[in-house]
Specification:
The strands form four sheets. A six-stranded mixed β-sheet has the order 7-8-6-5-9-14. The two termini are 27 Å apart. The longest helix is centred in the N-terminal third of the chain and has 25 residues. 36% of the residues lie in helices and 11% in strands. It has 20 helices and 14 strands. The protein is α/β, with parallel strands linked by helices and 547 residues long.
Length: 547
């Protein structure tokens, strides 16, 4: 089944704010210029001043309390071009990776940071210039109002409905981030503050050509900067990067080291722990270090618009926006099942007694099966096995098939009211959805290749889909319990984003160094943990981060 279509308007509060943003953009931009004379553009004060809201809480996919801001602060303070001699240059655009969905692009970005730091190099992103971009507005993630030089006192919707293209009347700022960097604010602790290497020697097209070579990951490029420094560069796109990672993983060539951990922002104690790990434990600890360093930081305009959108959701009217507690379910159907996960769907139905693969009850796993992850045993019971106290759960459902999922919910037994059902005699489940659900659920339209019916697209519509998807992703990543699967890129990404360091208690043996202290208790302590994540169907063992 392909995702059902439905026409939904943007929530009024969000739509009104978008239009207001267009109208007051000149004021905001002038204010930014004024404040920049007193504060550096990256300063925390400036980010907060321009938001008028709690921007920090919407700048990452994890709780801000999980991040150690001193890691980035030290990196900014210590940035020095003289340290920019060994670089890892990742190009997100070539080989059509920029036309993939959020999950695939973010997973590839995770892989680039892990591999680049493993190779003991500063990791840089290189985006195509606007004139070389295949996307209107210079980015696959669309156009925020901040991107434009000229502000017309009309809405993006009005511009898109005219006979002329919006790109004809809305001029993108020359230095406004494009490509993947329109979404992600790449951090200095990864880049070392280094500039793109050898700009006088190689153009973007030169780097793009070298990045897709079969030798991209194995044959570094050496060039000289204008100041005489020799720079050693590995330049790669997503294809060679993935091939290299698979090959090294298969041969078990990745070895944890203190040097690698330090590159990921580790303390000396954390680096020593990391160097003792291998296989899955090593990768989880590496992800935990990256989470602590706050590697996946959204650009300020993304954070601002996600905040505006999320605060219009009825989910947060129910649970509040300060320390909200809720659970989430991700239901991916459509092209992902048809193309990649058909075998897992067949396996599920066979487990339910349906052996005729050509006549399955549905070509997807029913929503009720996801709910079975909420067990009766989670509630207190008496000696007769009767539940004595029920658990109330507010559940957000992110899906590319909302109409059918809502029909499935409507047909569930034990309904308490219009929104709530009783499950396993234990869980009182109240369901909430993204109110912006419409006919497209992919960054590119209604599928990875765009709109199947030829619907005309533009960078404003693309930006709206981008914000709606990031809002969903943020809700899922920050939920108390997440129910999903590893067949989709989102499931793989969310598993990575829910890993945290779990440093054991250290016993002071009288030494002056934390690295000489001993672990108390368990002889085989766990050094990382994953926030509650329950796999509804398919493989239960996660792939390595970014894969």
């Amino acid at each position: 089944m392909t995702p059902s279509t439905q026409q939904r308007s943007i929530p009024r509060a969000y739509a009104a704010t978008l239009l207001l943003g267009v109208a007051i953009s000149p004021f905001i931009l002038n204010l930014q210029g004024f404040l920049s004379t007193f504060y550096p553009p990256s300063s925390f004060f400036l980010r907060r001043s321009l938001s008028f809201n709690d921007l920090e809480n919407y700048s990452t996919l994890q709780d801000v309390n999980d991040i150690d801001p001193s890691i980035e602060q030290r990196a900014v303070a210590n940035a020095n071009d003289d340290k920019c001699r060994n670089l890892f240059l990742f190009l997100p655009d070539p080989q059509h990776f920029s036309s993939h969905g959020h999950g695939s692009q973010l997973n590839t970005y995770i892989m680039s940071t892990l591999i680049g730091t493993y190779l003991n190099r500063n990791v840089l992103l290189l985006e195509p210039p606007n004139e070389l971009s295949t996307f209107a507005g210079g980015s696959q993630f669309g156009c925020p109002v901040d991107a434009f030089e000229e502000i017309h006192m009309t809405s993006p919707a009005a511009s898109s409905s005219s006979s002329s293209s919006p790109s004809d009347s809305w001029k993108i700022k020359e230095n406004f981030p494009g490509g993947f960097s329109r979404l992600i604010d790449h951090q200095t602790w990864l880049s070392g503050g280094c500039p793109i290497p050898c700009a006088d020697t190689y153009t973007y097209n030169d780097w793009a050509r070298m990045s897709v070579s079969s030798t991209a990951m194995n044959v570094p490029i050496t060039c000289k900067e204008s100041d005489g420094r020799t720079v050693n560069v590995i330049a790669t796109a997503g294809g060679p990067l993935r091939q290299y990672s698979r090959s090294k993983t298969k041969d078990k060539h990745f070895i944890a080291s203190e040097r690698w951990a330090i590159k990921l922002g580790a303390t000396l104690t954390e680096a020593r722990i990391f160097s003792t790990l291998s296989n899955a434990a090593m990768w989880d600890y590496a992800m935990g270090l990256m989470i602590k360093a706050g590697f996946l930081r959204l650009q300020p305009w993304i954070a601002r618009d996600v905040e505006m959108l999320l605060k219009s959701f009825d989910l947060f009217h129910a649970v509040g926006t300060k320390n909200p507690v809720y659970d989430s379910i991700h239901v991916r159907r459509g092209d992902k099942l048809i193309e990649e996960a058909r075998g897992e769907v067949v396996k599920y139905w066979r487990s339910q007694g349906h052996s005729d693969t050509e006549n399955l009850p549905t070509n997807y796993v029913p929503f009720a099966h996801y709910l079975d992850q909420f067990k009766k045993e989670e509630c207190p019971m008496n000696e007769l096995g009767e539940v004595t106290e029920r658990m109330t759960r507010v559940v957000y459902v992110a899906t590319d098939d909302p109409i059918v999922v809502k029909e499935e919910i409507a047909n569930l037994p034990n309904r308490i009211d219009e929104r709530m059902v009783l499950w396993n005699d234990c869980h009182e489940l109240s369901f909430y959805f993204n109110p912006t659900d419409d006919s497209s659920f992919h960054l590119n339209g209604d599928g990875e290749t765009g709109f199947s019916d030829g619907t005309e697209d533009n960078c404003f519509k693309r930006y709206h889909r981008n914000i709606a998807s990031v809002a969903d992703m943020m809700i899922l990543a920050k939920s108390r319990t997440f129910v999903g699967e590893f067949n989709s890129n989102w499931g793989k990404l969310l598993r990575s984003m829910r890993v945290r360091l779990d440093t054991p208690i250290l016993q002071d043996d009288g030494s002056n160094s934390d690295t000489d202290k001993k672990v108390v208790g368990d002889l085989n302590p766990r050094f990382s943990k994953t926030l509650d994540m329950r796999i509804a169907w398919g493989p239960t063992v996660p792939r390595l981060p970014g894969m």
